[in-house]
């Protein structure tokens, strides 16, 4: 396990900039406006040989606990309570504020050790802020510039005692069926993505509420799901019923024409990166709104990226005419996503928990399908039968010869067919082959790639 280190401070002191600096990439959204970060997010940090888990938190504000800022503050308090160390960040140029002093009082009452950081410390403008920070009672502050990297060596020395002694987590084998399932939840705003994850975890891990667009960053949370219905065959294959899942909550994805705000554009881009990172993507629909064109666009994007897709209809507990609704969505999906048939469709309720086990089980199953490799003999027998049952056409009287097939890779399953005059092969025949791969080789419901090439040997088709 890696130690958890939480970054805390009032809004706009540079917490997310420091988070990005420590993880070595721009994972957290950064903007001049305060309050960009709302949920706490985690990342693997590397600092001069030290490995630890860094947690970026929302700006700590003194607001009613029922308000959005109040719910954000609760998330921050939970992050600090579960951390081995807190990095308390203040703005050196602004100097101490009453809110800084309130946060300091709260931190002194907590059991979590604190390292004080004076950010934006480059130049003389921060000198008074550095001197004022001694009054907070956390010992010598660390002057730092998260944006430029100044003071990182001093930060290393300060956190080193808290990190040493922890062993770095072993890297997971992506081909291992016991490796954590990377499961992203996507959909339009207010579909209930964060509420669903909270229900899975059985805790208020993510901020939720009636306000659309609360989630901005893509938030990753580790979870263990018990697969009570694991088959005996899978158990014999060594698959653990305690299945590890890496849940990824994302910002709501609206139609592009409606996205004007800079932060929302960044949030949607962040959600698209989450799709790239995921193995299985759950597209969450709102049962009270049905299937809309934007849902199909999101689904198509998932398929184009080669990721597994599972579609869940949320708010099933308040759906009107559920049977007709389910059948209507199923028909619309088969028509709108013709390139991938039999995508799992599951009714869920983030409020009651209905369908969650079925949803997660389907996600593990499609990942297994997505990761499988077909034995060479079985692949060749299918290919020969497919060609015999429906030979390629002969445009202009010239035969198109498809000679052999190989599976190039998995995740997504990708096949290469070699032949002659393949540029003349019609798209309809290519679809015939892809449909056959799905139906006869067990790749239903996942994206399949098919590449058709001519041999490199220029004399290969000379007879």
TrEMBL record:
Keywords: GTP-binding, Nucleotide-binding, Repeat, Ribosome biogenesis. GTP 1 binds at residues 9-16, 56-60, 119-122. SUPFAM superfamilies: P-loop containing nucleoside triphosphate hydrolases. Pfam families: KH_dom-like (PF14714), MMR_HSR1 (PF01926). GO terms for biological process: ribosome biogenesis. GO terms for molecular function: GTP binding. Residues 3-167, 181-371 form the EngA-type G domain. It comes from the Bacteria. HAMAP family: GTPase_Der. GTPase that plays an essential role in the late steps of ribosome biogenesis. This is GTPase Der. The lineage of its organism: Bacteria, Pseudomonadati, Pseudomonadota, Alphaproteobacteria, Sphingomonadales.
């Amino acid at each position: 396990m890696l130690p958890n280190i939480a970054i805390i401070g009032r809004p706009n002191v540079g917490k997310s900039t420091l988070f990005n600096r420590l993880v070595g990439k721009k994972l957290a959204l950064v903007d001049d406006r305060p309050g960009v970060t709302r949920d706490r997010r985690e990342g693997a940090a590397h600092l001069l040989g030290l490995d630890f888990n860094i947690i970026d938190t929302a700006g700590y504000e003194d607001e009613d606990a029922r308000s959005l800022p109040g719910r954000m503050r609760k998330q921050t308090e939970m992050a600090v309570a579960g951390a081995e160390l807190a990095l308390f960040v203040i703005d050196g140029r602004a100097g101490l504020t009453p809110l800084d002093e309130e946060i300091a009082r709260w931190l002194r009452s907590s059991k979590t050790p604190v390292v004080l950081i004076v950010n934006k410390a480059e130049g003389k403008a921060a000198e008074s802020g550095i001197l004022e920070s001694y009054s907070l009672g956390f010992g010598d502050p660390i002057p730092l510039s998260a944006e430029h990297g100044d003071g990182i060596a001093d930060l290393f020395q300060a956190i080193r005692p808290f990190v040493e002694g922890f062993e770095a987590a072993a890297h997971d084998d992506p081909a291992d069926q016991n490796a954590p399932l990377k499961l992203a939840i996507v959909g339009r705003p207010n579909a209930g993505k964060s509420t669903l994850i909270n229900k899975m975890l059985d805790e208020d891990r993510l901020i939720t509420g009636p306000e659309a667009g609360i989630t901005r960053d893509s938030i990753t949370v580790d979870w263990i799901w018990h697969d009570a219905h694991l088959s005996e065959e899978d158990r014999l294959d060594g698959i653990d019923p305690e299945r590890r899942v890496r849940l990824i909550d994302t910002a709501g994805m609206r139609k592009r024409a409606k996205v004007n705000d800079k932060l929302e554009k960044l949030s949607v881009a962040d959600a698209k990166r989450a799709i790239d990172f995921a193995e299985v993507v759950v597209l969450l629909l709102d049962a009270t709104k049905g299937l809309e064109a934007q849902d199909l666009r999101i689904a198509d994007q998932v398929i184009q990226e080669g990721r597994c897709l599972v579609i869940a209809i949320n708010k099933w507990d308040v759906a009107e005419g559920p049977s007709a609704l389910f059948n209507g969505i199923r028909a619309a999906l088969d028509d709108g996503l013709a390139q991938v048939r039999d995508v799992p469709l599951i009714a869920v309720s983030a409020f009651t928990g209905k369908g969650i086990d079925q949803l997660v089980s389907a996600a593990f199953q499609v990942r297994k399908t997505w990761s499988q490799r077909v034995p060479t003999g079985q692949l060749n027998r299918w290919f020969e039968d497919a060609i015999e049952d429906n030979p390629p056409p002969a445009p202009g009287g010239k035969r198109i010869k498809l000679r052999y097939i190989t599976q190039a890779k998995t995740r997504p399953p990708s096949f290469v067919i070699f032949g002659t005059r393949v540029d003349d092969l019609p798209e309809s025949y290519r679809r015939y082959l892809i449909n056959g791969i799905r139906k006869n080789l067990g790749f239903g419901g996942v994206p399949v790639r098919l590449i058709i090439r001519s041999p490199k040997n220029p004399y290969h088709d000379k007879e």
